[in-house]
Amino acid sequence: MKVNGILIDDTFAEAFGMAGTGVIITADTMKWARIAAVTMAGFGTSVIGAGAEVGIDRELKPDETPDGRPGVRVLLFGFSPDSASAQLKTRVGQCVLTSPGSACYAGVEAEKRVGLGQGPRFFGDGFQTAKRLGQKRFWRVPVMDGEFVIEETTGIVTDAVGGGNLIILGNDRAGLLTTAEAAVDAIGGVPDVITPFPGGIVRSGSKVGSKYKGAIASTNDAFCPTLRGRVKSELSPDTVAVLEIVIDGLTSKSVADAMRVGLKAVIDMGAAKGVTRVTAGNYGGKLGQHHYKLRELLP
Amino acid sequence: MSGLTFRLTSAPKERLDLSQLTPRKLSSTPLAEVLKLNVGSTKSGLSLGDVFAVSGKPGDTVRIESGSARLDFVGAELDHGTLIVEGDVGVSAGRNMRGGRLEIKGDAGNLLGSGISGGEIFVKGSAGGQVGGLSAGDKFGMTGGLIVVDGHAGDRAGDRMRRGTIYIRGKCGSFAGSRMVGGTIWTELGFGTDPGLLLRRGTLIGPSVERMLPTFADAGRHDLVILRILSRYMSATLGAQAPKLLPTSVRKYAGDLSTVGKGEILLTA
User: Fold this and answer.
1) Residue A293: pLDDT above 90?
2) pTM of the model
């Protein structure tokens, strides 16, 4: 069907169950909380190649953080609690512990817990101390600008969802990017989700498998405009570029909400920016447990 | 807020053990049996009905309308519900508490909250020695929970304390935090002499110390994030009764260096 001049495919996004956890990073200023968060989320695009999908959920005002300083909530998704926990440990140890003035707290409240400060505390070389307040335990690790405070554990959920997506096609590359940016901005207002790729947008959508041994994924040739005519293309003759927004969320509802507001943002921009069509990636519905039908997400 | 109310019919002639007067124990005991409970501390066999008038029905709250420094072990083993005492209590109030809330509107004797592992104790007046400390045979003193004393506290508050928080709006006596293994003691009006004697780990916070042990090292002034967390924890727990936020900069003394030395005294003034 066409909405505001844009063709919306009658298809669905196919997403997978994942383990999702998160942290709240605070610092003396929002600038430094963001620096630590961006560093931690770096190289956290695809769980296949990066080990985890990591991104900023939202910024937190001082009255929303455990220590009353500006903060950022970072979410991290992995194949399993064990793999997510390992990524959390190394990323916090290398990117948050090292950042001036930082502190790190549980960002997900759930019954199942994974270690947060249980690894970085050993950086204290025996000078670290613990402080238990109510049900929470914090580690104080001496560092060169004072103390790094880190909560002992954070929550992890095993019914998180990874791989919600919108694929946007257009006849103007610049206009398409502007539209995708607007969709990512809108998704940024939805709690409990991240868009882990650069700027929330991926231009190298992949298919499963490759002609080369050892490569488990390769370029999605059916959506590559320059291969039109050489392969069985999914693209109409006027399509010059395709961009994808991948969404991970702590709950299936949050992913659906994010896709809904993203789709609305694209439709609100209309065809004027050169967007011609919106579709979604799936594997025929046989691999992923979660299906998000575009027509059910229309505004 | 249903529950039983107890009122002294006369001043106790001997020390009374009121450890049985908790919501859980009273809810499972018929009233006739409650009145027969032996609460005396001598051979006289004093029963509860001899010294208390009882009214109300069992519930989550127990109220003792009259106070006396001879009411010992009030709220001992409390694990849920609320116990309110309208006056003074004797020794070992809140002994081995695991949960719930104990409110004492008067003064408390020695060993308030000894061995407490959870729950909250509030004292309107002052408390005797060894608040959150340990009794004979115990390995540790307080291992969790919160004790708030609006008045002053006697000597050796937090003796061998391991976890939890003691907040004294008044002044702490001497040797606060002696042999302490962890936890926090916070006084608004300062510590007496020699706080932190043999302190292994844990935090003592106050504006001043009457005499600092020579085995504490001046570590300088610092802005400690953990104090912001502590202030917010107290605000969340105590609401309008919470203390003022701690200052961003405090002077830290590390010790006791005659033992593990991972403890600290933080001076707020």
Assistant:
1) yes
2) 0.92
